[in-house]
Amino acid sequence: MKELKYEFYIGATPEKVWEHLISPDSTKQIYYGSVIRSSFKEGELLEYIGPGAEGDETLHVYGKILEFSPHKALRFNHKVGPSYLKGGENYESRISYLLDPVGGCTKLTLIHDEWHPDDPSYAGSESAWWQIMSNTKTLIETGRTLDFGSWE
To answer: Which residues form the Activator of Hsp90 ATPase homologue 1/2-like C-terminal domain (predicted)?
Structure first.
């Protein structure tokens, strides 16, 4: 089974990194204008909503919270929004954010796994995660994001 795994060391505490992962203001800067919406209770819905094919409230990604351990771990299952399906099946995968303090910084590990072999969203995720994780690190350390141009 395919797995995408990324590790970044960020010059900030786990608390600060965590806040950027779950704050709508931060996710809007990191995830191409999409905000995170959730009660952050295990078993409940998590959504990334923002500009896209269906207007400003396009549902890009959604899933159920599997684990919510503040400053340590956020895991949720992952499905793409309806505008990405183009008549195909909506496969489920899993996203895990893991935070570990390392000296005066935080090791942020992202694992996107449990992919169905036929999931067409794998290729897009494989390329987008590098930008998302780089934007996360840059925003936390500098207060600004990177300019990748337009996202199409």
So the answer is: 12-135
Q: How far is CA 9 from the centre of its chain?
A: 17
Record the pTM: 0.93
Count the Cβ atoms, other than its own, within 10 Å of residue 95. 21
**CA of 112: how far to CAs of 52, 57, 142, in Å?**
22, 24, 26
CA–CA separation, 128 vs 105, rounded Å? Answer: 24
Strands 4-10 and 105-113 come out as: antiparallel
- Phi and psi torsions of 131, nearest 5°: -70, -45
Diameter over CA atoms, the chain = 48
User: Which CATH architecture group holds 4-142?
Assistant: 2-Layer Sandwich (3.30)
Report strand pairing: 93-102 vs 73-80: antiparallel
**25-66 per-position pLDDT tens digit:** 999 999 999 999 999 999 999 999 999 999 999 999 999 999
Q: How confident is the model at residue 148 (pLDDT cuts 50, 70, 90)?
A: confident
